[in-house]
């Protein structure tokens, strides 16, 4: 049995080069460990009373199996460390003050409003926007009339279905879109706004965008915010930097009316 366990350990140690192979190795280890326990139990039941199994032998086998499991866990920790090195706080802090687009349905309700941008892959005939609170309950449902393909800014006034102001916090936008045939139209929800903070939690780098925390890997693009110059003539506004409208420009939509 010792030779069998040694072969199992040698095979399992080769499955730690990537996350998928690590997961596969852990699954195989669990299966092999169950088989090992079954074999050990059978061997103990059927051992020769005059020549019992040496306890040191199967103890060493259990230790060997445990060592392989610890190796897999070590590889997972190393992978997380490498990931944090590339997307850690020191790197993410450079995004503070930058305007980003993140693929997230969460936005913070602050000063009586929360803003999102939703995208329709193609024109839809029936679109329903639902704002959910942190408990997953729908607090507002809106049917916008402008449902062409592309991006649509949506600003919620922070009021519930009966006009009651909702508490500040993080809310989620859920969208349901269908065409005239009742077929689902693919849609996505984004957060467009300035990065106001960076935090690392449970090994993940989180950015504060539109009053909500967004994972680093959800950031789709980064751009310089538009800035107003002091030399603009009276009554006009000149901007420099990106030509893309920032979140401050998205203050109304047919849906929010």
Commentary on this structure:
The structure is a single chain. With 257 residues, the chain is of the alpha+beta class. It has two domains: 2-86; 91-249, Immunoglobulin-like (Sandwich), CATH 2.60.40.4070. The chain has four helices and 13 strands. It has helices at 2-13, 19-45, 55-86, 89-92, and strands at residues 99-102, 106-109, 114-120, 126-132, 138-142, 150-156, 169-178, 187-201, 204-209, 212-215, 219-223, 227-228, 239-240. The strands form three sheets. Strands 1, 3, 6, 8, 9, 10 and 11 form a seven-stranded antiparallel β-sheet that branches. A hairpin with a 2-residue loop joins strand 9 and strand 10. Helix 1 (2-13) runs parallel beside helix 3 (55-86). It is elongated. The N and C termini lie far apart (74 Å). Residues 1-18 and 230-257 have low confidence and may be disordered.
């Amino acid at each position: 049995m010792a030779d069998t366990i040694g072969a199992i350990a040698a095979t399992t140690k080769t499955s730690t080069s990537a996350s998928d192979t690590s997961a596969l190795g852990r699954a195989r280890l669990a299966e092999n460990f169950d088989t090992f326990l079954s074999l050990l139990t059978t061997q103990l039941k059927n051992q020769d009373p005059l020549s019992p199994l040496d306890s040191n032998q199967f103890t060493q086998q259990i230790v060997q199996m445990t060592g392989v499991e610890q190796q897999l866990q070590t590889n997972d920790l190393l992978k997380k460390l490498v990931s944090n090195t590339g997307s850690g706080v020191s790197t993410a802090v450079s995004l503070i003050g930058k305007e980003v687009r993140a693929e997230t349905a969460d936005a913070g309700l602050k000063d009586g409003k929360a803003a999102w941008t939703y995208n329709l892959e193609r024109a839809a005939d029936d679109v329903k926007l639902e704002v959910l609170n942190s408990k997953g309950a729908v607090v507002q449902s809106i049917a916008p009339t402008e449902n062409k393909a592309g991006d649509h800014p949506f600003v919620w006034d922070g009021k519930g279905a009966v006009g009651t102001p909702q508490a500040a916090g993080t809310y989620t936008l859920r969208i349901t879109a269908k065409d005239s045939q009742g077929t689902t139209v693919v849609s996505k929800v984004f957060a467009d706004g300035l990065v106001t903070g960076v935090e690392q939690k449970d090994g993940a780098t989180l950015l504060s965008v539109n009053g909500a925390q967004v994972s680093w890997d959800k950031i789709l693009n980064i751009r310089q915010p538009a800035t107003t110059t002091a030399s603009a003539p009276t009554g006009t506004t000149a901007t420099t930097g990106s030509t893309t409208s920032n979140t401050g420009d998205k203050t109304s939509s047919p849906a929010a009316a």
